[in-house]
Every structure is written in structure tokens, then in C-alpha cells.
Amino acid sequence: MEKNFWITNEAIEINDVVNKVVRPEAGAVNTFIGTVREFTKGKRTLYLEYQAYASMAEKKLEEIGREIDQKWGDAKTAIAHRTGRLDISDIAVVIAVSTPHRKDAFEASRYAIERIKEMVPIWKKENWEDGTLWIGDQKETKSYKENTPIGEDHTND
Amino acid sequence: MEKNFWITNEAIEINDVVNKVVRPEAGAVNTFIGTVREFTKGKRTLYLEYQAYASMAEKKLEEIGREIDQKWGDAKTAIAHRTGRLDISDIAVVIAVSTPHRKDAFEASRYAIERIKEMVPIWKKENWEDGTLWIGDQKETKSYKENTPIGEDHTND
């Protein structure tokens, strides 16, 4: 796989992401892995569904990589985000950032996940025990009406 | 493998460490991977050698896990550290911490690597182009005379 930033319907292999950033100049790789949590504020999630505007999402992930380059200089970033149905503990996103020294790897990786949630067109549908809810953006500040069918009402912005 | 904290002479598989901490309660896993960097302040490393007082090192890694439990509450930690000869880009250490939310995972993982360098009896021998140097502790504040043979002069305090 050539791309360092990709959206996929398949299970993400952590090594596929980490291997993109390991290099002789790096002494540190920080990896953030987002997994499906069963309970959120006491509500039980059965599974999640992620949808993405994939081509735009990959462009936005690349943009985050460029932002990290600018802010941290000698950093290399790779990000994979999954779409489709994810069960409890499945991996939704893997970020890997390598830098010469560890402080920068931690900071840049944290930056990446915050930016993903701010700017990448990926939507999440919570399937709880007692209903469903589309989360309109990943900051979870907007939400749409319950039981909205997949593919409706979830344009970018 | 039953242990969550271990010293090994074999290559560390990142998944072996991450799989110890993935769980339904967690939405975030932060992983720190330390790799062998080729250049440090302009000096070229050919390879490194790590030695550990293994049984004590594993106890100290467990202690770090307990410290994280106390500080962050709902966190699960696993750490593997390699010994022996490591070539450029080889993995020396993998830390994985899972928590319900990402902020804690980043913080606890960072805490773990700082504590490893402070308190775990592992010694590193730099094999540079122009000589060798034992690094007496992982904070790299103490160093021993050049060309000390492996196994001499490097007891645990």
C-alpha cells in the first residue's frame, strides 16, 4: 500500500500504519488507536457504523500530516480510519507519528486525533441497546435525529 | 504469554503488547514505541546493545503499571522491553495503555516512558562508528568509560 493516509472498510492492522513511519532518523513512534467502547455515560453500545466521504477524508488526513510537518519539522505521519460496522473493541482509527525524540511524537499524535475530530468528514452511528443516533461530526457537538437511515442527512458540514 | 510486563531477547511484536490492553471499557489506546535511531547529535550509531537485570526490571515495569492505576484509575498497561543487540530502527520498547478516553491514554503512556528511564535497571551500549559507550542509566545522565566489556561495571546501583 502506497498511501500514508487512508480510509478502509477492512480491519486495520496496526503494523501497516506503524511501518509507514519507522525510519532511521526516528527514535520514537507514538501510536493512537481508537477502539469501540461499550459504555458511554452509562449507555451500552452494541456496535457502531462509520461512514466517510472517503476521497475527501483522505485528503483531509493528508492535510493533517502536512500540518504536523510544519509544526514539528522532522515528523512522519500515517493515519488509517475504518468505515462500516465495528463491534466492541474493534479499531476505528490508527495514527502513527515518528520523530527523533519522544516529546514531539506524543504531541504530534495527540494533535492528529484532535484534528481528525475537527475536520475529517467521517460520521458515526451509535447503535445503542435502546435506539440509534447519528453523530454528525466527530467532536460530538452536533447530532441528528434518531433512526435517520444511513446515507441521509449526513453531508459534509 | 500471561505477563503484561516483560523483558525479552526476541523482537517485540507491537500487537502482543496492544492486545494485552484492548478491552470493552476502553475507547483509546496509546502506544509508545522506542526505536533505534541512527544519528544522535551528529554521531552515527551502528547498533545498540541492551542489558537488563531482567527479574528486577520486570518488577519495576509492574510497579509503573501500578502507579498508572493509582494516578489514572481506569487504565490498563502493558510494557515489553527488549535486550541484546538491536540494529537501526529495531524496536527497543513498546508501551500500551488503554483508557476510556484519549486524554488519559496519552498522559499515562508518556508517564510510563519517563518512569522507565528513571527507574528500570536496563543499560544501553552505544556502538558508534568511532567507539562504544555504556549509558549507565536510561536518563542518559550517567555514562561509563568507553569500551567497557559487556557485563562488567554495570550492576544495578
From TrEMBL, chains A, B:
Source organism superkingdom: Bacteria
A UniProt-annotated Pfam family: MoaE
Gene3D superfamilies linked to this entry: Molybdopterin biosynthesis MoaE subunit
Pathway(s) per entry: Cofactor biosynthesis; molybdopterin biosynthesis
Catalysis performed (reactions): 2 [molybdopterin-synthase sulfur-carrier protein]-C-terminal-Gly-aminoethanethioate + cyclic pyranopterin phosphate + H2O = molybdopterin + 2 [molybdopterin-synthase sulfur-carrier protein]-C-terminal Gly-Gly + 2 H(+)
One annotated GO molecular function: molybdopterin synthase activity
UniProt-listed Enzyme Commission number(s): 2.8.1.12
Keywords tagged on the record: Molybdenum cofactor biosynthesis, Transferase
Stored InterPro entries: MoaE_sf, Mopterin_biosynth_MoaE
Enzyme type, top EC level: transferase
Family the entry assigns: Belongs to the MoaE family.
Quaternary context: Heterotetramer of 2 MoaD subunits and 2 MoaE subunits. Also stable as homodimer. The enzyme changes between these two forms during catalysis.
Stated role: Converts molybdopterin precursor Z into molybdopterin. This requires the incorporation of two sulfur atoms into precursor Z to generate a dithiolene group. The sulfur is provided by MoaD.
Protein name, per record: Molybdopterin synthase catalytic subunit
